[in-house]
Every structure is written in structure tokens, then in C-alpha cells.
Design brief:
The protein is α/β, with parallel strands linked by helices and about 550 residues long. About 35% of the residues lie in helices and about 20% in strands. Helix 4 runs antiparallel to helix 7. The longest helix is centred in the first third of the chain and has 21 residues.
Length: about 550
């Protein structure tokens, strides 16, 4: 039997194996960032030197101990005890029991609990956003913005809790009614990635909860402190409402926990965010048991700028989409198609804009560009740059690792590649922008769609006919199709997700709530007769 690669954890984590819990020299413990005065704010989130990474109504953990590190300097922050398989089994049982209570609570009352979770997050938004910046590595404004996304989806879910349901349909039979009934699936497993360690859980958790489901979360190991901190906030709300904590359970862990969730028939829906490579394996495991999966996988997103594009919009949009979060968004722009008449001008403007990017510690409010999440990501970046050169590309900006502490690389622009170059069709989770020339609409629409992923896309034009062709059946084949805005920065009101190798899942707004429920068509006979459908006589 094949073994799922460690990428189910999304990254390599430094693990410590000790015979006694938390057995670590005092010198190491004093070197943890959490023990330094400037990071005392971490304790406002209930974090300590050693943290338990399992929650099911009570805190525990009997698995391996990991240390999480700050990507800006690779210094240790704190330690987390991961879940063992025994912890997973215990948590699963408690979550299933908690569902029996939660499912009986009316949806608007469930919405009230979610409202309180949103309020509790709002109270901690600055400190929790700072933790996202410290442990994940994204700049502070993005860290705070990510928590705001969770708050926003809570607000959205509260209103939705009074609206979910199906229609009453006209029956062809007299004295009969057709009703579409929606019920919770039961237990929703949520596996999230390092790059959005708060928001993606929030998209799933808030909607799943108002639908009547309980949640079991496995976050990325390298952002375990964020998972613990968020769960502590939620746990307090559940406790205040005298509800079982296992409604929102947590099992920090690696590939073993992820595989268990994928194979477990008690997980009625598994939401997985990560690479296409791992997501395909997860999907096969879930499908083997005829389970449900919601997949948010890779993206290889393109911006297209036509000859009539407003360059004052194109340049800052491409800059934000390519460089924001250091290129570590699933919606990051990795391909930029420029009409041949504007190509050189836009590349020149982008080079100047890249030179103005303020690089530094991500928690500095003046900084716009922080580190990659891990050292392994730096190696992947360097490998991709070399491969682009081998395939005929020219690095016109960046291309190197920065000579400073942490996992910093130069934001990079590559020109001269063929539109179908292998490296350009490969998602590299790093700030590399491949720039291409095109001649006409037909060819560039085809180039946009020729990659296997189908998450986000955008065009810049003033041509109304072209805009609607782009939105139509022969336009972009992505789940997110934008006009005159970047590929990244989606709002919570719309359904988020992509097509093809991106997985087909939808989260957040619109009717994404249907993913978390099962539908029954109910026929009710309120007459004294028994007419059959289609006028069949069976006598």
C-alpha cells in the first residue's frame, strides 16, 4: 500500500522526540520567542511555552511535540503537543456525541452562537492577526485581514441561518405536496493549509455550524499555534453557552491524522485545502468509501491586459496579485499576458514598482513584503527560477534569495518563455511572475485555459463585448473570473473555488452552504386518495 507523502502536512516540521512530556533544556525554553518580553502578547491568546494540540471539550494531546518557527528569522516561537491516533479516536467519538445536541438546536439559535464567535474574534483581531504574521509570515495588515474574513463569514452565516432551506414545489397529483428538505451532513472534517491558517477554517466552520454540523479541524503543523489560539476563542463561546466543546474539535497533527480523516466513514464531509498532488490522493481515499469531499487545490492564475487596458489599474493589480503574501496565495497571479503593443511598457513599469516594495519583518506595519513560510519553499523558488532559465526565460527582476535572516526571496519577473513552457504550467508557491506577449483575444483566452488548474483569472479591457465573451462559455474556464481587478482578494459573499485540477469545491458565500448539507425530496400525501405519478394505474 502506498504511503501518503508528508506534503499532507504541507511542509516539513521540526519534531522533537522525548521520553518525558515537555522535557527540554532550560536554555532552549528561554530562547522561545514567547518568553521574550516583546512577544508577551502571545499569552493574551492563552498560549504558553508548551501547548496542548487536541481539543474535544477538554485539552490534551499524547502525540509528538513540535516546535513552530517564525519565518522572518527562523527562531522558535513555542511548542505544541500533537494528537496521537488514540486522541483522534477519542475526539471523533466526542464529536459524534456532540452532534446529537447541536443538530437539535434550531438554525437561528445556532446562528446566534456563530455571531458570538465572530464577536469574540473581533475582540482579539489585532493580537490574533499579529500571531498570523508571526507564525505564518504574511504582513501584519494581511494577518489582521485574514481574521477579519472569519469575522465577516460569521456575520454572513448569522443571516444565512434564517434562510437555508429548500422550496415547496407544485405536485402533479391532487392533495400532494413536494418539499425539498435540507439536513446537516453530520461531521465535517476540515484540513487547512499554512497560507490561510484562520480564514479557510472560518469559511468552513461558520457555514458548517449554522447548517447543523460539528467540525473536526486539522490545521497545518507549522501553524499549530494559530490553530490552538483560534480554538481557544471558540471553546470559550461554546462553554459560555453550555454547549459541548467537541462541536468544534481540534486535532493538531501530520499525515497520519490527515489520512485517518480521509478514510474515516464517520467524517461525512472532508474539506481539504492544499496542493493538487496531495488533494488527488485525498479525494481517492474519500471516494473509495463513497464519502463527500470539498477540495480547494492548486491555482495557476493569469492576468490578461489588452491594448485598451488602463495601465494605472494593470500595474498595481499585477503587483498585488503576484507579490502579495509573497506569492503564497492560491489566487496569486503567476502568469501575465500582455498585448504586444503594451508589453515593454508594462514590464518597465512593473520593474520600477517591484523596486519600491518595502521588505522587512512582516509585523512592521510599513512593510509590504515578508518571507516565504519555510526554508523548503526557498529551495523550491530557486529551483523554479533555474528551470525557467533553462526553458529560455530571462529574469528581468529578482531571482535570488535575500541575504538576511529568515526565508526571504526577491520578488521575481521572468520574460521570454513560451506560453506552454513546462515551468509556466507548474504552480510554484512563490513570488515568480511569468510574462508573455500575445496578439489577439482568441489565442490569449486559449492560453489562459490551457493549464490544468482553473481557480482565478482576470482581464483588463474597456471593450464591453470582450468582457462578456470572457465571462461566457468560450471565455475563462476558471471558478473566479474577474474584470479590471486582480486575481486575488476574493470577497466572502461569493462562492470561492475553482474548476479542473483546482478540485471543483465551493466555500464561503452564495449557495456554498449546500456543500455542508444533504438534500431530500419529500412527497406528502394529505388527501384520502392514492394517485400515482405519471398517471400510472396499478390495480
Amino acid at each position: 500500500m502506498w504511503r501518503l507523502p508528508r506534503r499532507l502536512c504541507f511542509h516539513v516540521v521540526r519534531k522533537n522526540h522525548f521520553s518525558a512530556p515537555w522535557d527540554r533544556p532550560a536554555a532552549f525554553m528561554s530562547s522561545l520567542l514567547i518568553n521574550q518580553p516583546q512577544y508577551a502578547w502571545l499569552k493574551e491568546l492563552g498560549l504558553r511555552e508548551e501547548n496542548e494540540g487536541v481539543y474535544n471539550g477538554s485539552w490534551g494531546g499524547r502525540g509528538e511535540v513540535i516546535t513552530t518557527y517564525c519565518p522572518a528569522n527562523n527562531e522558535p516561537i513555542a511548542r505544541v503537543r500533537q494528537a496521537s491516533m488514540a486522541d483522534y479516536e477519542e475526539t471523533m467519538k466526542k464529536a459524534r456525541e456532540a452532534w446529537k445536541i447541536w443538530a437539535d438546536i434550531p438554525a437561528p439559535k445556532r446562528g446566534e452562537v456563530v455571531r458570538q464567535i465572530g464577536d469574540a474574534l473581533r475582540e482579539k483581531i489585532q493580537v490574533l492577526g499579529s500571531l498570523v504574521s508571526l507564525e505564518m509570515g504574511k504582513i501584519l495588515v494581511e494577518g489582521v485581514g485574514e481574521v477579519q474574513e472569519y469575522v465577516d463569514i460569521c456575520d454572513y452565516a448569522v443571516g444565512l441561518s434564517r434562510m437555508i432551506g429548500g422550496p415547496m414545489l407544485p405536485s402533479e397529483r391532487p392533495g400532494h405536496a413536494l418539499i425539498e428538505q435540507w439536513n446537516p451532513v453530520g461531521l465535517v472534517g476540515i484540513i487547512t493549509a499554512f497560507n490561510f491558517p484562520v480564514a479557510v477554517y472560518g469559511w468552513n466552520n461558520a457555514i458548517a455550524m449554522i447548517c447543523g454540523n460539528v467540525c473536526l479541524w486539522k490545521g497545518a503543523p507549522t501553524t499549530s499555534l494559530i490553530s490552538v489560539a483560534v480554538t481557544k476563542i471558540i471553546a470559550k463561546v461554546l462553554e459560555d453557552n453550555k454547549l459541548p466543546g467537541a462541536i468544534c474539535s481540534l486535532t493538531c497533527g501530520g499525515a497520519d491524522i490527515g489520512i485517518a480523516m480521509a478514510k474515516d466513514e464517520r467524517v461525512n464531509l472532508l474539506s481539504f485545502t492544499g496542493s493538487t498532488h496531495v488533494g488527488k490522493k485525498v479525494a481517492l481515499m474519500v471516494q473509495e468509501r463513497f464519502g463527500r469531499s470539498l477540495l480547494e487545490l492548486g491555482g495557476n492564475n493569469a492576468i490578461i491586459a489588452f491594448e485598451d487596458a488602463d495601465l494605472s489599474l494593470v500595474v498595481p493589480s499585477a503587483l498585488f496579485a503576484a507579490v502579495g503574501t509573497a506569492g503564497q496565495r492560491c489566487t496569486t497571479a503567476r502568469r501575465l499576458f500582455l498585448h504586444e503593443s503594451i508589453h515593454d511598457d508594462v514590464v518597465n513599469r512593473l520593474q520600477k514598482a517591484y523596486a519600491q516594495i518595502r521588505v522587512g519583518n512582516p509585523w512592521d506595519s510599513n512593510v509590504l513584503y515578508g518571507p516565504l513560510h519555510t526554508k523548503q519553499a526557498v529551495s523550491m523558488f530557486l529551483g523554479a527560477v533555474e528551470e525557467a532559465k533553462k526553458e529560455g526565460g530571462t529574469v528581468v527582476y529578482g531571482g535570488k534569495a535575500m541575504d538576511r535572516p529568515g526565508n526571504y526571496v526577491e520578488p521575481t519577473i521572468v520574460t521570454g518563455l513560451a506560453h506552454n513552457a513546462t515551468i509556466a504550467h507548474t504552480e510554484t508557491f512563490a513570488p515568480i511572475l511569468y510574462v508573455f506577449k500575445f496578439k489577439n483575444e482568441e489565442e490569449v483566452f486559449a492560453w489562459n485555459n490551457e493549464v490544468k488548474q482553473g481557480l482565478s483569472s482576470s482581464i483588463f479591457t474597456k471593450d464591453l463585448g470582450r468582457i462578456f465573451r470572457w465571462l461566457g462559455p468560450k471565455g475563462s474556464d476558471c471558478g473566479i473570473v474577474n474584470v479590471n481587478i486582480p486575481t486575488s482578494g476574493a470577497e466572502i459573499g461569493g462562492a470561492f473555488g475553482g474548476e479542473k485540477h483546482t478540485g471543483g469545491g465551493r466555500e464561503s458565500g452564495s449557495d456554498a452552504w449546500k456543500q455542508y448539507m444533504r438534500r431530500s425530496t419529500c412527497t406528502i400525501n394529505y388527501s384520502k386518495d392514492l394517485p400515482l405519478a405519471q398517471g400510472i394505474k396499478f390495480q
